[in-house]
Amino acid sequence: MTGKIYSASTTAPVNIATLKYWGKRDTKLNLPTNSSISVTLSQDDLRTLTTACAAEFFESDKLWLNGKEESVHGPRFLACFNELRALRKIREDANPELPALSKYHMHIVSENNFPTAAGLASSAAGFAAFVQAVANLYELPQSPEELSRIARQGSGSACRSLFGGYVAWEMGQEADGSDSRAVQIATQEAWPDMKAAILVISASKKETSSTVGMQTTVNTSTLFKYRTDVVVPQRFKEMSEAIVNKDFETFGKLTMIDSNQFHAVCLDSSPPVFYMNDTSRLVIGLIEKVNKIYGRVVAAYTFDAGPNSVLYYLEKDELIVLGLLKAAIPDVDGWDKKSYTSSIAPAV
Ligand code: 2P0
Q1: Could you confirm whether domain 5-186 is CATH 3.30.230.10?
Q2: What global pTM score does this model have?
Q3: How far apart are CA 193 and CA 313, in angstroms?
Q4: Considering only CA atoms, which of 199, 196, 206 is closest in space to residue 337?
Q5: Is 210 in the pocket of ligand 1 (CB under 6 A)?
Q6: Which of 29, 41, 78, 342 is deepest in the core (most CB within 10 A)?
Q7: 184-218 confidence digits (pLDDT tens)
Q8: Boundaries of each Mvd1 C-terminal domain copy (predicted)?
Q9: Can you tell me the distance from the alpha carbon of 26 to that of 30, in angstroms, rounded to the nearest whole number?
């Protein structure tokens, strides 16, 4: 059978948290145990490209990720898809002249241009691109905040990739997750000289997925409650203010101590969860030394659920940061070939 194919494509950026999301209070709805903050990276280097197609003659929903067919029956995928379809149905009921896309099966094709599941926020860009592509196809009027609430159900950190610039994921209070969504703290234009260097120390898939790792921490770490109840609420305020005030010194210090505390609660879990390796620690030592020599924060490191390092710095310091890194770790596997520098993303 043939017929008209409706399609929409979009790209979505990765975001790298500077105040980490780690832990769910509701695993089904992806509701976090703490609010988090991230910076969205420009799509020039790291991004997911997704196309969503719907046609009356498609016989089933299908999904391809990086060229490989994947299940469309996963609860996370379905949570997003069902909600988007329901929103389209409301539009069709109100506008009977619209094609009945909500009844058609869909084919989704998605590709990352960077290593997947290596702690480089691939699920964030992936689900953000999926939700945005389907929203475009369905011509949904929902705001980015509303779409972020849907993307959150696919992967928590995905909600932050619906915005450019500097973004907060407010954990919310409601049991149904209606107030757990991302908001923009500041646009890229408000603080345009921030840059990021991404050091791909290992492109291998991580051993412990974030989903499993964070619930091990929630269930077993005794330090974790102190982090969520005492540390993060205060740090969230301080980091938001530092961003609004373009105070890199404070932003950088908070970014580094939060990365370290996130990895500390991972280590405090049983069994312990390790994401950093010796090269990650070498980068930490180097940046700490550089900052000490200069007597200010020249660069701030942060590590997600993997050994790869992201450094935030101001454009004026780019030569110092990249020059010193190259001189200090010339032989790290993959260092020269797999590193990126990135600007911050303007509006997504
Ligand atoms: C973050 N990470 O804030 C933290 C820091 C990793 C370390 O969000 O289970 O892939 O899909 O909600 O979003 C990675 O976790 O986890 C993550 P799910 P997700 O970026």
Answers
A1: yes
A2: 0.93
A3: 8
A4: 199
A5: yes
A6: 41
A7: 999 999 999 999 998 887 777 778 888 999 999 99
A8: 197-348
A9: 6
